[in-house]
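Exercise 4. Each item below gives a protein and its sequence. For each, produce the structure-token representation.

Item: Transglutaminase family protein (Cupriavidus oxalaticus).
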Amino acid sequence: MKYKIHHHTVYRYAEPVRRSVHELRLEPRSGPLQTVHSWRLSTPGNPSAARDGFGNIVHNFTVAGPADTIAIEASGEVEVLPPHGDLDRDGHHAFCDAPPPGESRVSPLYFLGSTPLTTAPPEMQAFAAPFLASGHEIPALLALAQAIGERVRYKPNTTDVGTSAAEAFSLGSGVCQDQAQVMVAACRALGIPARYVSGYFYDAVATDLASHAWADVCLDPEREIWCSLDITHGCVTDERHVRLAVGRDYQSAAPVRGILKGGAGETLEVNVSITPLPDQG
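Answer:
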């Protein structure tokens, strides 16, 4: 599947921002699961681009003068590649995400460490452990992901970006971000590297899910073999998923982060549209 994506973000302030510094992870990279055919980012000022230690494309920009509106626009075309590589006995695909020659990244083992957002309390570990008692092959991980989706029900407006996995698990509800962080936290607590993924999800009906999050779980750290699991939909990721960034949790993969001076009374408007493009073949 090939998609045209348009992501428009506007911050408005009742009191102007005197100065702000912004960090964006709003440009997808080509990799084993997708090819980025074109991408354009529009921001105030002149953004600088770099790669972080996870392989994400990161842009930074500064707004130096007073501003009551800050608009960020990202758009382009991304092709989600058909499944390829080795199949497990249940027909699920894993993928190798080793860095290309000349690019340095952290080891998959770095994703064993918990963060304040991905710490697993004893009750979460006890919940997850039976699913992975005989190993962490894809079917077992998928069963855990589905169980987490039932335990932490999808319910908007019950959590926020600062909600931890432990809090969402205790509450029993949240959004895709919370479900993904619970999966990540549970896997790490059981000694399995896992990372948070931000991205886009295409559903012609449920357009409110266009901005999405899920989890990658490492099956073989030495060979850098991963599987990608959508906890919200209880599935291995497929042609509906476009990846933006990976990180240890929401904070290190967030599409937009910023530090402001001034700028009281912030309101945020985000519009994401995903349009399938006809097959040119």
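Check: The chain has a mean pLDDT of 92.
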